Amino acid sequence: MNIAKQLLQKSKYSIALAILASAVSAATGVAIIGGINYALGNGLPDFTLGVTAYIGLLVLLLGSSIWSQVLLVKIGYTMVYRLRKSLVARILNTSIERQEQLGGPAIYNVLTRDVTMLSNATKQLPVAIYNSLLVIAGLIYLCWLSPLLFAFVALVVVIGVWSDAKLTASLQKMLTRIRHIDEDLFQQYEAVVEGRNELALNSNRRRFLLEQQLIPTAKASRDESVKSEVLWALNLNWTTLLVFTLMGVIFFAGMQFPSVTQETVVAYILAIMFLRTPISMVLDSIPAVLKGKVALAAINRLTLEDRDELPTRDKQATPKFQSLALKDAVYQYPAQDDEAGFCLGAVNLNINAGELIFLVGGNGSGKSTLAKILTGLYQPTSGEVLLNNKPVSTDNAGELRGCFSAIFPNFFLFNEVIDEQGNSDDHPKIDYYLKRLAIDHKVSVDKGQLSTTALSQGQRKRLALMLLYMEDRQVLLLDEWAADQDPVFREVFYREILPELKQAGKTIIAISHDDHYFDCADHIYKLDCGQLSSFNTGQQKLFATN
Ligand SMILES: Nc1ncnc2c1ncn2[C@@H]1O[C@H](COP(=O)(O)OP(=O)(O)OP(=O)(O)O)[C@@H](O)[C@H]1O
């Protein structure tokens, strides 16, 4: 369902109440103007009653406007809160494949820029609703005052609404263009932040990024933004001109029609003056509301998972891991432009509990892709994944993922240590593992928080392994973990840590290029251009003796 509809659905009763309060407030405002006009024309028969009624209306006006504003502001912020919660949950529930297709900048753009735009729009929405109701109440009053003069008002309203609708359509197109330009800008920001070392070293690349990419994109964004703001400012002036023209027309027409009294003309002009502020406030809020609409469209374009419930603990109980098998599993990456995507498989593979498996193969042969299928992060395009001889589908992939802890080459190092129950706290095992991984002199843990993650790449990987120890999952996937370790610790990893983990009952799948240690594995599988074969033991022994 459209995210805007979902949000509006959840707040529908509060919105109805806020509109009611706004309507009361708007009607009271118009009643005050009407009362003054009436007294001006007909005098005040009972002064005390007049003053009492006036004070009563003022109290009602103050009460209802405060009530409506409080309700509307609450609705606005509650919608932003729900949007943030729902968006993050939907991203977490979206498949890894889809997230990878979208890329980091597109997701960041939505979480920062679009949420801010929507937040601004929801803050403007109350102002727009309140003032629109005020304008509607004012128009009803004008129609009641003189249907004849109202014909002129109606004509001006039609012209105003028509020109606004035309401009709003152009504005929306411009804002959509700005949103696309800003998407490119976010990608370039990513290059600025992530490519800091390369950029600092290479002035040609720095100049290219700045002169050929960032500056033209930022300029395009500036030019479109200026155009859209100027267009809207012109519209505001045009509307002001229309209102003054209307006052002139009423004034002169009133003189021409004997049936229109001078009091009616004065009352009309007073009411139109009164309506000028709400009209310009409604118009002022339109760009922000349109930007919110463009942001909503961008969020919907991401086609994230619809489910927005936050992950709960133990939703799918993790079974005892006995075996994992792939039966004719194929994974096909989508084609890019004219180039066919990489195809892994068909892969047939059996892994039993307690085994130490090595996955080897050249760069781009499909090892990480296979690792993502084994861990349940990717669903095979065809074929089957069997956990304990039971087929894994999208519905029960959580059971498979629950068996695994993994360190991928592009791993993220979290600041918090989480144990197997999902709790973050001090634990005697933490110090033991920090010592075992020889990083106790660099990092300490206080109340589950790591003292630092600003470490060398090899140390960061050791820390990631400590987090993985603490998660205490049954199957561990280590994708080229040892690649950043020094020779001494690499030896410790293959000759001590892996055997210790195996002895502790863990099943281990290690992706490796370290042929010196191939003899440690129970089974070695080799990938070559997406095809898996068993690496024969003769080759394994040969590597061990070399
Ligand atoms: N997100 C992706 N979208 C499209 N194609 C991809 C994606 N990730 C990888 N590929 C393609 O799949 C192929 C296999 O990639 P994979 O990362 O599985 O290789 P690998 O064996 O782990 O390589 P390496 O040893 O270099 O890490 C690559 O040739 C690459 O072109």
UniProtKB/TrEMBL annotation:
Q: Which SUPFAM superfamilies match?
A: ABC transporter transmembrane region, P-loop containing nucleoside triphosphate hydrolases
Q: Where are the transmembrane segments?
A: 15-40, 52-77, 148-169, 230-253, 265-283
What Gene Ontology molecular-function terms does this entry list? ABC-type transporter activity; ATP binding; ATP hydrolysis activity; peptide transmembrane transporter activity
State the superkingdom.
Bacteria
Residues covered by the ABC transmembrane type-1 domain: 14-291
Q: Which SMART domains match?
A: AAA
> What region holds the ABC transporter domain?
324-544
**What UniProt keywords are attached to this protein's entry?**
ATP-binding, Membrane, Nucleotide-binding, Transmembrane, Transmembrane helix
Record's bilayer topology term: Multi-pass membrane protein
Q: Name one GO biological process term.
A: peptide transport
Q: Which NCBIfam families match?
A: cyc_pep_trnsptr (TIGR01194)
The protein in question is named Cyclic peptide export ABC transporter
What is the scientific name of the source organism?
Answer: Thalassomonas viridans
Please name the taxonomic classification of the source.
Bacteria, Pseudomonadati, Pseudomonadota, Gammaproteobacteria, Alteromonadales
